[in-house]
Design goal:
The complex is a heterodimer. Chain A has a single domain, classed as P-loop containing nucleotide triphosphate hydrolases (Rossmann fold, 3-Layer(aba) Sandwich), CATH 3.40.50. Chain A is 36% helix and 21% strand. Chain A has 13 helices and eleven strands. In chain A, α6 packs across α7, α6 packs parallel to α9 and α7 crosses α9. The longest helix of chain A is centred in the first third of the chain and has 14 residues. Chain B is mainly α. Chain B has three domains: 51 residues; 138 residues, no CATH class; 218 residues, MetI-like fold. Chain B is built from 18 helices and three strands. Chain B has a three-stranded antiparallel sheet with strand order 2-1-3. Classes of the chains: A alpha/beta, B mainly alpha. At the A-B interface, α5, α6 and α9 of A face α14 and α15 of B.
């Protein structure tokens, strides 16, 4: 077992009922012939799994004996999930869409001013996980989130917390550039306006200019601030969306595959921007591109079928992954 | 080597078949469009050919002596005396002066039948507007009777319709024609007056005003209610069995025959709430019930067509649900909503059946000035005129249909124009 497990906070004990129910749900969700799985020890199952996968498994002596490529056996995230300098802490997160469980028992910290990348094959729940961080999942019909998510020690799912305030603190950039069909200026000014951040027109102008500068878009658009934002190129639109997000000075920025709709040059610009932004903001980015994760992130979390398999410093994930599944993914065996 | 060639031949063969099918399909479409256009052309052609005459009316030129003794009025400012005045004597005297040879009661009555029964009152209005004319004589064009109008128009067209005229009347008209004392001129009465039993005096002003008042009320009620319902159902309401039930019922409501709405209005608004009958208020309320489903359905479709990415962007910025809807969804959905509202209004403008049930079919001469004045509406006016026995109402009916169609065309064109104008490009 990973040594980091001992650093699990005491909070987990308090949450044990949730843990139990989620474990039960996990077992139900697993294939029926695996119903007895919890009774078997991981070790007892290992030889069978290893035998079955043997021709495909690469020699990986560093891996612990409890690992296998069968994700149903996966119980505990390996690597360094937790941080002493945590901005956000997530404990025992389970997410359901109706009866279907999308995320199983995820425990992870996001440190201050780090860039953490979420990678994994399609449908592994990384976007769903990202969207729990600013409660965008609230808008999805039938979506239910269990567990505890805190930012600076404050429970984000507390009944008295206002999601409007939360989303001002945790900004989001979406997969497809989605500027409002208004002018460039209006796009950036919208957040400060609705939150009442600017008292005067001059303040607002300043916020807009600063945000566009931080998103390295100012030079390109300063002459046409009052033309529609939808008239920009895809990459410029996405930077406009980033400018819009940072205009309300959030503490955390969530990015859901921000470059998937962009060409390589625009992608490079956004990646450069992420690098700069990480000095002031905490950034969580979901990406399909492992190269991108490797380029921009400090830590990388690998998700597989709704489970958080491994979290480690990016360099380590891409050079010496601790878990067989991670290695299988980054070496391109699936996903 | 033969195999690929074989393959290619098969593709060529199937391609010919596919092209033929496509060409056939295009022709089906063209024929369908042609049938539609032809139907419209026939409808318009028929109505215009029948109704264009109504925009002109026959007038007879006579020299009228405003003889004080004849009228029996001394003081033009005393309303009682004015009401007692024998105004019809003025046109009668003028006609007798024109045809001095006419004698005998029957012939004299036929002679005065040349002019509209309203001619005396037209002269009264003229005299009241110009009191100095009292005792003077002037040459003036007076409105002819509807039978004379029908005859003169048909005679001018070369196909005289004389069924309701005596031979003497026909001779008088020919004499007037030869002296240039009878002519067609623009029928201002059609647009300036309310309904009348006399076709030559009947106008559509009352019906147009009634339609306008009713539609204003319908729009004021149905647009806000319909749009609010659509926004709530689409953006805020939970998706459960209740909202499904509501949706089914809104669609049901759109399919209910309109006469049933009339009965509902009669039972609820008039019998239960004691709203007066025949007034635009009750008409507007009934048409609101009818238009609501149309507006709700089109508004929901417009809201649905706003891309979800815009909502996500706004919510992700920390806009509340209300702000998201108000700042982003509503402006983008508005063109669709307006189009739906205009189409709903056009439907309401053409609606007749429910209004029959709530008394808007009454014969009303006065032009309604407010929501509480008894009124009728254009389609009901058309129904009333079409139902009248006088031959002259045939062209009046067609003329009223032309006016109604003009309003409908304007409304539908503005719906298309608005949609094009306000549409956002992504």
């Amino acid at each position: 077992m990973s040594p980091t497990d001992t650093t699990k906070p005491a909070k987990v004990a308090k949450k044990s009922p949730a843990l139990k129910t989620s474990a039960a749900a996990l077992n139900k969700a697993a294939a029926p012939n695996k119903a007895a799985a919890p009774k078997k020890t991981a070790a007892s199952k290992k030889p069978k799994a290893a035998a079955a996968k043997k021709p495909r498994v690469m020699a990986a002596p560093k891996m612990s004996s409890s690992q296998s490529l069968d994700v149903d056996d996966h119980k505990v995230t390996v690597g360094k999930s937790f941080s002493d300098n945590a901005k956000m802490t997530m404990r025992n997160i389970n997410v359901f869409y109706g009866d279907k469980q999308a995320i199983y028992d995820v425990n992870i910290d996001i440190a201050k001013n780090e860039v953490i990348a979420m990678i994994g094959p399609s449908g592994c729940g990384k976007s769903t996980f990202l969207r729990t961080l600013n409660r965008m999942n609230d808008t999805v019909e039938g979506c239910r989130v269990e567990g505890e998510i805190c930012m600076d020690g404050e429970d984000l799912y507390a009944p008295k917390l206002d999601v409007v305030e939360l989303r001002a603190r945790v900004g989001m950039v979406f997969q497809k550039p989605n500027p409002f069909p208004k002018s460039i200026y209006e796009n950036v000014a919208y957040g400060p306006k609705i939150h009442g951040l600017a008292d005067t027109r001059v303040d607002l102008d300043e916020i807009v200019e600063n945000s566009l500068r931080k998103a390295s878009l100012w030079e390109e658009v300063k002459e046409r601030l009052h033309q529609p934002g939808t008239g920009l190129s895809g990459g410029q639109q996405q930077r406009l969306c980033i400018a819009r997000a940072i205009a309300v000075s959030p503490e955390v920025i969530l990015m859901d595959e921000p470059c998937s709709a962009l060409d390589p040059i625009a992608t490079a610009k956004i990646e450069e921007l992420i690098e700069e932004l990480s000095q002031n903001f905490t950034i969580a980015i979901v990406t399909h591109s492992m190269q991108q994760a490797a380029r921009v992130s400090h830590r990388t979390a690998y998700f597989h079928l709704g489970k958080l398999i491994e979290v480690n410093p990016t360099e380590q994930v891409f050079t010496m992954p601790e878990h067989q599944l991670t290695e299988a993914y980054i070496t391109g065996r699936f996903g | 080597m033969s195999k690929p060639v074989d393959h290619l031949n098969k593709i060529k063969h199937s391609l010919r078949r596919r092209n033929r099918a496509e060409a056939r399909f295009r022709w089906y479409g063209r024929v369908a469009v042609f049938i539609g256009l032809a139907a419209v052309a026939v409808l318009f052609g028929d109505i215009i050919s029948k109704g264009h005459g109504a925009f002109q009316a026959t007038y007879i030129n006579l020299s009228v002596a405003y003889n004080q003794d004849l009228i029996g009025v001394d003081n033009l400012t005393d309303p009682d005396e004015l009401a007692m005045g024998n105004w019809q004597a003025l046109p009668k005297a003028a006609l007798r002066a024109q045809f001095p040879e006419v004698s005998g009661r029957s012939d004299k009555r036929k002679l005065s039948g040349l002019l509209s029964s309203g001619a005396g009152y037209d002269l009264k209005d003229r005299l009241l507007a110009n009191p100095l004319l009292l005792g003077e004589t002037e040459s003036i064009w007076l409105l002819a009777d509807d039978d004379i109008d029908t005859y003169y128009k048909s005679w001018l067209a070369g196909d005289a319709y004389a069924a309701r005229l005596t031979d003497k009347q026909i001779i008088w008209i020919e004499q007037l024609h030869q002296q240039g004392q009878i002519r067609l001129q623009l029928n201002t009465n059609l647009f300036a007056r309310g309904d009348s039993r006399e076709p030559e005096q009947a106008g559509i002003r009352g019906a147009v005003m009634g339609s306008l008042l009713t539609l204003v009320l319908t729009l004021m009620l149905s647009f806000p209610i319909g749009v609010s319902a659509a926004i709530y159902l689409e953006e805020f309401a939970p998706k459960n069995r209740w909202t499904d039930f509501i949706e089914v019922n809104i669609n049901n409501l759109a399919a209910v025959p309109s006469i049933i709405f009339g009965l509902l209005g009669l039972a609820i608004f008039i019998n239960f709430f004691h709203v007066p009958r025949s007034v635009p208020i009750v008409g507007g309320l009934v048409l609101t019930l009818m238009t609501l489903p149309t507006i709700i359905i089109t508004s929901r479709a417009a809201i649905k067509s706003v891309p979800p990415s815009i909502r996500q962007a706004a919510l992700g910025m920390g806009a509340s649900k209300y702000q998201t809807v108000l700042h982003h969804v509503l402006p983008l959905a508005l063109p669709g909503m307006l189009t739906g509202a205009i189409i709903g209004m056009a439907q309401a403008l053409g609606e007749t059946a429910p209004l029959l049930m709530i008394g808007m079919v009454a014969f009303i001469v006065d032009i309604p000035g407010s929501f509480t004045d008894p009124a009728t509406v254009l389609p009901v006016q058309i129904f009333l005129w079409a139902d009248s026995p006088e031959r002259a109402f045939i062209e009046k009916t067609s003329a009223a249909i032309m006016v109604l169609l003009t309003f409908l065309i304007i409304m539908n064109t503005s719906a298309v124009w608005l949609r094009k104008r306000l549409e956002r490009r992504w």
